[in-house]
Amino acid sequence: xxxxxxxxxxxxxxxxxxxxxxxxxxxxxxxxxxxxxxxxxxxxxxxxxxxxxxxxxxxxxxxxxxxxxxxxxxxxxxxxxxxxxxxxxxxxxxxxxxxxxxxxxxxxxxxxxxxxxxx
Length: 119
Fold this sequence. Notes:
By secondary structure, the chain is an alpha+beta fold. It has helices spanning 2-16, 34-41, and strands at 20-23, 26-29, 46-57, 68-72, 76-90, 97-104, 107-116.
């Protein structure tokens, strides 16, 4: 019974940090803004920026101020949005995993880790 409780506690702790990691004493998690991450972690070791355009078919004309609404025959109303993508990499050395951060319009969308870093 004690062993099952320990395994359950470990799984619970692991699930709470999914999509998050620590920079020193600061927790970085999905939903944070680029400025917050820079303040807590400093400059990333490497980064890339690009722009993507995404289209969403709508059920009708929606005037919410997000993107451009177009009417396209055979599809109907389509919203086109410009998404600014930033991808950052942090290498914390051989004792920790490399962290890949994916931002969209300044917001951290997801975090991936990949193997141990290098000194």
